[in-house]
User: Which sequence fits this backbone?
């Protein structure tokens, strides 16, 4: 396998993982401190890398162009396929709702800042959704061209923000401990969502022609790159603002404002805002395109079918954002439930069944049944945490 393909696959995994969920990390970690969030991130990275390797093992028993739905149907039957489809839809819609809620708020601020247009929050959200929807409906090629430019700008903005914030880190801020124990569990679903990349695994398997050693390398390194970037991001955000300030200023707009006010540099507020805007926009474009194509296969091919698919794609998450304009963190938490099904429960159930019938697989992930039990326990904890937040037993974040 060529090094170029392995490198490309590694970067695809890293790029898929690093998105707007990165912006939620300081909000989710505000009440638990840097060291606790670091422990949770490392554990969730290990969990997600492990289940991704399980997916590689599963793909040995199918053709290299098999999708998650194909695997689920082949191994678990129609019920498995339906479960995978439902979880995929739930995940896509939850992520789109989060990005519209966060992006709509940011877009409204930009209209006020640049053009002195004081629109209502609802109007800004609708206009933002329509702009992105029009790009997606036009076609994948348009999304690709727009996304390349935006992704490059996002990387430059992220590097600039990290460089500006790093010299202002205060060691005492990084030593903050959890305000209450419930916040530790409440932070897990949001942090978990920021490590999701499993939807891209079938495409990577196809691209690397099912080469197991190359896939292992791409997955481990590709998922580790976001972990390193997230650690630096947590270091410079939790380290430049006191815990009390972060807790008192919840919400994406408040986080950007607080970071900007802390660093006495010209234009740093604009750069931080630009990075947040680009992170939301690139993530929203990628996820909404995936949802659009997913739904497009189910809608009959007829005149204006792309417009109809666009309406079905964007209306439900936009309605959520209109009813819950501060629902960025909330929607990411709900996305964790769907991601747990797709990235933990389905792979574990499928590999357990395959291992009972196939005994000569060239590659098998270590850990045996104990590893599968640990993964299942972690998945149950993630889903339970979000349910407990929803019914009010655990504190809500953001």
Assistant:
């Amino acid at each position: 396998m060529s090094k170029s393909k392995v490198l490309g696959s590694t970067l695809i995994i890293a790029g898929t993982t690093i998105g707007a969920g990165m912006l939620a990390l300081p909000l989710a970690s505000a009440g638990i401190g840097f060291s606790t969030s670091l422990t949770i991130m490392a554990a969730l990275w290990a969990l997600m890398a492990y289940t991704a390797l399980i997916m590689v093992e599963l793909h040995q028993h199918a053709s290299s162009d098999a999708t998650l739905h194909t695997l689920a149907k082949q191994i678990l039957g129609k019920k498995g396929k339906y479960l995978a489809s439902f979880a995929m839809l739930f995940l896509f819609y939850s992520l789109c709702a989060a990005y519209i809620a966060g992006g709509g708020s940011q877009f409204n601020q930009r209209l006020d800042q640049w053009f002195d247009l004081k629109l209502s929050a609802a109007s800004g959200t609708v206009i933002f959704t329509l702009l992105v929807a029009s790009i997606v409906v036009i076609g994948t090629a348009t999304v690709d061209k727009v996304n390349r430019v935006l992704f490059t700008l996002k990387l430059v903005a992220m590097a600039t923000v990290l460089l500006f914030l790093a010299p202002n880190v205060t060691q005492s801020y990084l030593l903050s401990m959890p305000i209450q124990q419930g916040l530790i569990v409440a932070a897990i679903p949001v942090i978990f969502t920021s490590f999701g990349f499993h939807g891209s695994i079938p495409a990577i398997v196809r691209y690397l022609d099912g080469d197991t050693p190359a896939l292992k390398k791409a997955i481990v390194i590709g998922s580790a790159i976001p972990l390193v970037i997230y650690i630096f991001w947590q270091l410079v955000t939790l380290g430049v603002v006191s815990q009390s300030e972060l807790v008192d200023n919840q919400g994406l707009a408040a986080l950007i404002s607080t970071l900007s006010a802390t660093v006495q540099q010209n234009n740093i507020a604009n750069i931080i805002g630009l990075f947040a805007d680009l992170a939301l926009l690139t993530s929203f474009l990628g996820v909404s395109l995936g949802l659009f194509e997913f739904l497009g296969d189910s809608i009959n091919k007829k005149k204006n079918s792309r417009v109809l698919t666009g309406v079905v794609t964007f209306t439900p998450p936009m309605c959520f954002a209109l009813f819950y304009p501060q629902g960025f963190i909330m929607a990411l938490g709900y996305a964790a439930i769907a991601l747990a099904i797709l990235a933990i429960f389905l792979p574990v159930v499928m590999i357990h069944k395959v291992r009972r019938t196939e005994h000569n697989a060239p590659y098998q992930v270590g850990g045996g049944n104990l590893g599968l039990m640990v993964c299942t326990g972690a998945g149950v904890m993630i889903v339970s945490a979000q349910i407990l937040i929803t019914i009010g037993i655990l504190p809500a974040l953001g």
